[in-house]
Amino acid sequence: MSPTEYMAPTTPSRQWKHKDLLSIRTLEPWEIDLIHDTASAFKEINSRAIKKVPALRGKTVVNLFVEPSTRTRASFELAANRLSADVISLESSSSSFKKGETLKDTGLNLQALNADFMVMRHSCAGAAQFLAERLRTGIINAGDGAHEHPSQALLDTFTIRERLGRDLKGLKIAICGDIMFSRVARSNIWALLKLGADVTLVGPSTLVPPVFKKLGVNISHKLEDILPEAHVIMLLRIQHERQRQALFPSLGEYVSLFGLTAARFRKCRPDVVIMHPGPINRGVEIDSELADGVNSVILEQVTNGMAVRMAILYLLSGGQPLHVAPGAPLAPHITSPAS
Amino acid sequence: MPSSNVLLDADALDRALTRLSYQVLERNAADPRRIVLIGLPTRGYTLAQRLASRLAPIAGFEPPVGKMDITFHRDDLELNIPVPQVSHIPFDITRRVVVLVDDVLFTGRSVRAALAALSDLGRPAAIQLLALIDRGHRQVPIRADFFARKITTELEDTVQVKLTEVDPVPADVVEVVSP
User: Which residues of A touch B71 (CB under 8 A)?
Assistant: First the structure.
């Protein structure tokens, strides 16, 4: 069996029912499997000469990026194009946010243009949920502050499943780096735990505070301890732009303690899977040669991202309105640097 | 109380597949090596695999078999969002004769979607349709080139094809179930 052929065991009536994708925390494990299985079908289509299907013909997707993004936006844009939807992309610099329009008014205006989906990135945690509660349009959270980035976690877990050709139950997964400020980390923690993986967060205590233990993960401040048994090492970018105070003394010290170097790589399992959501700081989170090596799936993550986003758009097109109570709290541990 | 009526038992299905494989070969006798079989998941693909192994001894080669998911080409996605299966067509269909294999031909809409999906994969020399059962009630102008049985059904009936490879049955069976 080639790894791509792993499919989750089918359960009866696997029918997607949400109009929005706001977080991983609110998904059931079978819903994650459903997105992955659907993404497998789209991945095959993406390998063809003609990479387009008419599934979302006549639908309109608006990319609303109030916070800058290139890869996620491009990935969603191509995903929508390949489903034959019409796509427009708005960025904060070109939109009415500069003129003082509120998020709600922007949403209502886009809904009035008959947008079927809004793919949204915003610096405030909960921004996507705020719009989802107020609009009929399906909202896809493409990153809200330090809260969640569900499509990234879905593509990461899809990539693990595909590379290893199995489900994630019992896999030992290390997430290393800036956990505190990372929405990618939060979404991945939820996704990995829901799929049965054993998660260890690694980094300096300023970036990996003990409060995360409440989620059901292990915490380590020494990368070496986890290396020999980790099936997957997920590296996170050190986000200079989000750090308001010095949370570690210097980049040099970070590299010497937490960088994935050739010396540390020799302590890993030979089949360890190395992941990074990008953009990578070569020589900081990971040595350049390792990033380009056979254990790295960094570019595969990008390729899979499009298939996963096609699956999200496709499944949401049949979803029903939100049933989360308006104003329902985000996860209790969320601290958004932007809020 | 639902009633069911066996249309084909395992032996009858076996004979029907033998007959169908000869018919496919006869129709394409001029150049049988152009034949490729593409099954629609789930049972059309199983039937295509069986037909390929039957064609092997009589045609002198085993035609390639592919599996094509048609979900994204359906015309009823507004009503229902089915979970797709992964297509697997490891050959070029251009200038080949594609024998499209499905278990039951009903409204014809699946076949319409399949024709659209095929056109994204290449330009075959010809497309022929093989359906095990033709149960009528077409909603689009499509007919089968090859079939084992053509039957009259009520709209509410279901025609169930159960094959040992994919269904939990001790032997193949095709039955009509009336509500």
Answer: 41, 55
Whether the Cβ atoms of residue B29 and residue B91 lie closer than 8 Å to each other = no
Check residue B81 and give its pLDDT: 85
Q: Under an 8 A CB cutoff, do B120 and A55 touch?
A: no
Q: Between chain A and chain B, how many beta carbons pairs sit less than 8 Å apart? A: 52
Domains of chain B: residue spans and CATH: 10-74+85-153 (3.40.50.2020)
The ipTM estimated for the assembled molecules is 0.85
Is B72 in contact with A40 (Cβ distance < 8 A)? no
Of residues B148 and A13, more confidence is placed in B148
Contacts of residue B73, Cβ cutoff 8 Å, sequence gap at least 6: A53, A54, A55, B113, B114, B116, B117
CB-nearest to A44 from B80, B81, B86 is: B86
- Cis geometry, peptide bond prior to residue A337 (ω within 30 degrees of 0): no
Please name each of the domains of chain A with its CATH number: 16-149+305-316 (3.40.50.1370), 150-301 (3.40.50.1370)
Q: What per-residue confidence (pLDDT) applies to A212?
A: 94
> Could you tell me which residues come within 8 angstroms of residue B109 by beta carbon, excluding any fewer than 6 positions away?
B74, B75, B76, B139, B140
pTM, full prediction: 0.89
**Cβ–Cβ contact B23 with A under 8 A:** no
B118 interfacial to chain A (CB closer than 8 Å): no
Mean pLDDT of the residues in chain A: 88
